[in-house]
Every structure is written in structure tokens, then in C-alpha cells.
């Protein structure tokens, strides 16, 4: 007797069938794919670009490009991985055109996303209201310490919750490289968090 497929495998199989229908020109199938993924496309774009309007524009461009390219998608990877790879590439094309580094503004992060970044830096977040009021500046400062490439990895892995393998597939990096860069990014965040804490303590004594 064959073991039943896991819910994750069943969901992947269902999505594959929807993709096949969309590739045959079924517009309702493509609309279903958009409904499933548009929120995370925007979240990834917003995490990289840090500007809501620009992220919305890029997300629309991603969906258009995916629609045009869908007949050439060979199903060797998950549809979501393929789609998020397009998203990351579009974001960095946009940044090159803008000719500026992505500015990480905490106002563009949800409260939950900000907590995830702060948790990586050491203590799991703030509890006191006065401390929370300073969280925006700290999160902005923490992420600003990272290189653009490390920031991309951190957004995909820690904020969007993708697996190491998925991050590697999207960024064309092997798993070990992703792990090393994640370790480096986390270490930098922790070091900056410690320096920020020392600076705050010093100011309190003055």
C-alpha cells in the first residue's frame, strides 16, 4: 500500500496542474496563480526596494513578465521559486536604473517583520513602550550595516521565511554559500546590536 502524499506535496501537485493550464492559455488559471503569490511578490519587492509605490510598480512588472514568459517555464523548479527569482531580478534592475542603494526604512516593515530582524540581533525585541519607539531607528541601522547581497539573503530567509535551498535557487547560489552569508549577516547584526547597546549605556551614565 502506497503512503499518502504529504499536504505539501499535494499542494505542489495542485499548483503544477494550475501552471500547466495557464501555459495552455487558461486565463482563469493564471489569475489563480496571481492570487496565490501576489502578496509575497510585493513583500519581497518591498523588502528590497523599501519604497511602497516602487514595490507596487515592480510587482506589476513581475506579473506581466511572468505571464509573457510562462510558456517557457519548464517546471523543473517550483513555480514560486521561478516567480521570486524574477522578482529579485526586477528589483535589482530597478535599483540599477535608480542608481542608488536600497534604503531600508522601518516604516516600510510590518511590526512582525521588524521583530524578526530585531530578534536576529540578540534579544528578541522590545517590550517597553519607550524602547519600541526607538525600534525603527535601530532596525534601520541594523540592516543598513549589511551589503546589498547580504540584505537580499536576509530579507528572503528571515523576513519572508524561505528555506536556504529556495534562497539559493532564487539568487543562483549554492546552499553552502547561502549558509555562510546568512551566518555573516547575522554576526554583523549582533555586533552592531552590541555596539548600539553600549552606546546607549554610555549615554545613560553621562
In DSSP terms (H or I, runs of 4 or more residues), the helix count works out at 10
The backbone outline, from C-alpha atoms, is: globular
Identify the CATH class of the largest domain: Mainly Alpha
How many strands?
0
Average pLDDT number: 75
SSE string, helix = H, strand = E? Answer: HHHHHHHHHH
Instruction: Assign the structural class, choosing from mainly alpha, mainly beta, alpha/beta, alpha+beta, or little secondary structure.
Output: mainly alpha
Q: What report would you give on this structure?
A:
With 206 residues, the protein is mainly α. It has two domains: 1-103, Orthogonal Bundle (Rna Polymerase Sigma Factor, Chain: A); 104-206, Orthogonal Bundle (Arc Repressor Mutant, subunit A), CATH 1.10.10.10. Helix content is 75%, strand content 0%. It is built from ten helices and no strands. The protein has helices at 7-23, 27-49, 52-69, 79-98, 111-120, 129-133, 135-144, 148-159, 164-171, 175-205. Helix 2 (27-49) runs antiparallel to helix 3 (52-69), helix 8 crosses helix 10 and helix 9 crosses helix 10 (175-205). It is globular. It starts with 6 loop residues before the first helix and ends with a helix. Mean pLDDT is 75; it is low at 100-107 and 123-136.
Short recap of the structure:
The protein is mainly alpha-helical and 206 residues long.
Outline the fold blueprint.
Elements: H1 7-23, H2 27-49, H3 52-69, H4 79-98, H5 111-120, H6 129-133, H7 135-144, H8 148-159, H9 164-171, H10 175-205
Helix pairs in contact: 1-2, 2-3, 2-4, 3-4, 4-9, 7-10, 8-10, 9-10
